[in-house]
Amino acid sequence: MVAVGVDYYPEHWGKEQWDQDIALMARTGVKAVRIAEFAWSRLEPREGEFDFAWLDDVVDRLSGNGLKIILCTPTNSAPVWLYRRYGETLQVERTGRRADTGIRGHRCLSSPVFRRFAGRIVGLLAERYGRRPALIGWQIDNELEANHCNCPHCAAGFRAFLREKYGEIGALNRAWGNDVWSGDFADFEEINTPLGDKYDYGWLNPSYMLDYERFASRSTAGFIRFQRDIIRKYSPGKPVTTNACFSARTPDYYRIFGDLDVAAYDNYPSLYKQGERSNPQQAFVLDLVRGYKRSNFWILEQMSGSFGCWAPISPAPRPGMIAGYAMQAVARGANLVMHFRWRTAARGAEMFCHGLLDHSGVPGRRFREFAEFCAQINALNIPEDAALKSKVALLYSYEQEHAFKIQKMSEGFTYRRQAELLHRAYMSLGVNVDVIEETAGLSGYAVVLVPAHFVADDAVVRKLERFVRSGGTVVVTARSGVKDPYNACLTRELPGPFAKLCGVLVDEYDPIGAGSAALSTPEGKKYAATCWCDILTPQTAEVWAAYDSEFYKGRAAAVRNRFGKGRAYYLGTVGDDALYRDLAVETLAAAGIPHGGVLPPGFEISVRENEGCEFTFIFNNDGEARDLRYGKETLRFKPFEVKVTRRPPTRSPCP
Ligand code: GAL
Ligand code: ZN
To answer: Model pTM?
Structure first.
């Protein structure tokens, strides 16, 4: 059954506190507790001297009270003695200097010495606790990023990756275009990781940088597999995962979770400033995480209070937010939602990253809301195999995300945003969208959305052609088909390999950034556009919308092309919500996918079902109380309320 958990750091609190905390957890309806993250120095206080007695005690008390356990490997923060005695285990920053201890996450993931010590503590934990019935899974490390360490080991790893990929240095020089700025290498040994914090990504060769990002993701994946294999040896059958987050160094999560048993994410919807009311991006992120393994997932950290540490303390979660955003995660496929954290830390950098209980430990408003959420989830009995079903897929890729981070297109144009705009349009019609890897199979889908497929993969283009030829509908957006797989520009007319499928050519483009353009359709509908304007010449396509402004007034901005039994759309600009919504309505109609009309902004509907039952979630993702006309009824929602209806309406678990 879908369950609620909490993140707990027993090593920060005296034993007297444990029983009280655990009793309150059990009473509140918490089912699982995540422990031992960051606890390495308490488990191995001196090199080779281990103390598991306190953790044995915690594990016994938790399991004795019927609570399940997620155990973390503590490798994010190694003890100071390790770094002091074995300096090479510290990362080297882009400045070329070694990091120093003081924060966390200083470890080099590929240092053989670090791996020796990490492997030993992970092995001991897995051996000791791996077969305990209360243990329901493992979290490796914490929020692992792509490995951007610049130490000699990591640099050698990068060179080995390039050697394997290119074989001989001439092939790399050609692929990267190293004749520009006299960048030719005579030997792989001359290549370094990107050093020099003065150089922005915009100045470094994009081909070099994309290969570096590919390596950095692989390197992190290798560290995860290293731990996974140790865990699996001693803890057979227990799911292994890691907690994903998004940062400037996000790795390729398809690759990371491809090696793991379940996808997991740390879910911190932004807390608003006064006057802001809702958070429309959150559903996209959750759908993205569900796509990592095309399966339901876990939330290992869920927002529980104001943030504060790296930034001024944020506003408090408004009434309804703690339960609402946790239930939204369930609505989009979470089977476990663990709140970060049970108690607010009284010491250390994150003493103002608020948990469910404040420093006093006295349950307050946030805790009461959490307790209501626990009660609601426990009463619903949602089976873990109740899944979202979608006829619409959106292709997402970390290669593209990295390529666009390396080269900014125009002010305001981000890859993520292109995906979100499309996703939001279908969601506003109450239609589920699966966000899946670009290379994933398309069977079962009728509409496929392809935001900015920049670094062109011919296999993906051919797959989309086959899909449309046999009756599918595809939407391709601007900055598709621009690059070759080495992240150099294709020397052909845009949209390159998509020209045939979309029946269009791009004559010229105008990266207008924060500027705006006006559009209209042949039927007279008007839209606003921004960021980017492709000036199109239809070949076999018909005009879907044309520009109403600028020197390209009257020229096509978006087209629709019949291709085989299906249709392909090419959108050469970044439109407003109305444009994407009309495109969604038209493509759904063409594909014969029913929908219930446009929802008022901020309302989200999703359905989780298995063979025996069906749960419909309606979320008022808004800080105001609002009404929704739903079928023949008018439903009244409190701020951030989620209404869940179950069919058949029984209290017992579904078959
Ligand atoms: C997360 C991290 C936690 C804690 C939390 C604070 O990203 O995994 O360890 O730092 O943020 O909000
Ligand atoms: Zn390193």
So the answer is: 0.97
